[in-house]
HxlR family transcriptional regulator
Amino acid sequence: MLGKTYDSQVCSIARSLEVIGERWSLLIVRDALFGGATRYSDFQRNLGIATNVLKSRLDGFVEAGIMRRHRYSEQPELHEYLLTEKGRALAPALIALTEWGDRWASDGEPPILYTHSVCGAGITQQVVCAHCGRVDDPAEIRAVIGPGMPPERASRKA
């Protein structure tokens, strides 16, 4: 969706930005995930986004497999946009962004709280160690070369 702006990056963050990094993209996914928006008119009304931009984003999400288009009316032909498993998997990232925004980009109390629909308790996004469960400080996290790194790039980073 962004074009190939990150071709030189061998990084999953850069690849993710190619799909969901444009302005409005995460807000569209947010409204679908947490606001129940499925129809073009829902997104347009909630976001006030230009119609050509909304169409482009929704088409891009369908192409990327984040949403699927489902016809709900024959005359006139109308579609709703439903999140796929791939799209719903963005929930932890959106919750993490919300928590960051509540802490660092807000002057007051959180405007939105996420709760578990089954028990009503609050939802948070946490970074945990797969072995001991603890990550007390982001400085304890380091990035290491993974199996998907091309060998020629891995040798330069080692």
